[in-house]
Design brief:
By secondary structure, this protein is of the alpha+beta class. Helix content is 22%, strand content 28%.
Length: 114
């Protein structure tokens, strides 16, 4: 069996920036293999945070955890107020944040992929 080596560097922190659009390269939810259910769960989480915005789901992504396939998607959340963008950046959307999923940063590109 081949072992993979992962090197982790020094963490880098950034201040939260108010933005009208935020992007996450990978967000997951329970039963996320069905895109419709995924979108419904993300909308529920946004409602729970009191965030109103437009969700655009991009490419489907997969990875393995303990031999199980996990499905997630790229997400662009747009039409946000400054306070809503702070909430999404602070709390994230979806699950598996300990694995790096569901974190959002300011979207600086034109949404060509979504």
């Amino acid at each position: 069996m081949q072992e993979d080596i992962i090197r982790i560097g020094v963490p880098n922190t950034r201040a939260l920036i108010p933005a009208t659009a935020l992007f996450s390269p990978l967000a997951t939810t329970k039963n996320g293999q069905d895109q419709t259910r995924f979108e419904c769960e993300i909308k529920k989480q946004m409602e729970k945070l009191g965030v109103k915005g437009r969700i655009s789901v991009g490419k489907r992504r997969t990875f393995q955890v303990h031999g199980k396939q996990v499905v997630g998607y790229e997400i662009l959340v747009s039409e946000l107020t400054a306070s809503a963008s702070f909430l999404v950046q602070e709390y994230g959307l979806g699950g598996r944040r300990k694995l790096g999923c569901g974190f959002f940063e300011v979207w600086k590109k034109e949404p060509e992929i979504l």
